[in-house]
Amino acid sequence: MSEETAFDQMADDVFNGLGIDATYIPKIGDSVALKVHYDQNVEYNPGGYPGQGQDYLKTIEFVYADIGAIPGDGDVFMIGQTRYAVEKMLDHDGRGRFVKVVVN
Predict the structure, then answer these.
(1) Cα separation of 85 and 19, whole Å?
(2) Closest CA to 104 of 48, 46, 33, 38
(3) pTM of the predicted model, to two decimals?
(4) The pLDDT of residue 31 is above 70
(5) I need a surface site. Which of 30, 37, 70, 73 has the fewest CB within 10 A?
(6) Residue 60: burial class (beta carbons within 10 Å; 0-12, 13-18, 19+)
(7) In contact, 66 and 32? CB cutoff 8 Å
(8) Which domains, ranges and CATH numbers included, belong to the chain?
């Protein structure tokens, strides 16, 4: 098994084992059931330095291959009966495996 394949399998195992059920609903296209990590206390420091501008964000992280796209403004994740609208992409791993978006 190549390193690339092993890492892909590990990502799937982590999200399938620890993730929570969600549904991604794009503005255009079909909805997708997937596993996500949801965090409502992500510390955000504009400019990278703690200070008076410090804020806390709600984020959802997922495996890119589950959706096959970066969610856009106005796309929605449903977790249970709660709707989370995507505001922007916060982070990705640079390899196309994981994406983290800010939601409200």
Answers:
(1) 19
(2) 38
(3) 0.83
(4) yes
(5) 30
(6) buried
(7) yes
(8) 3-103 (2.40.10)
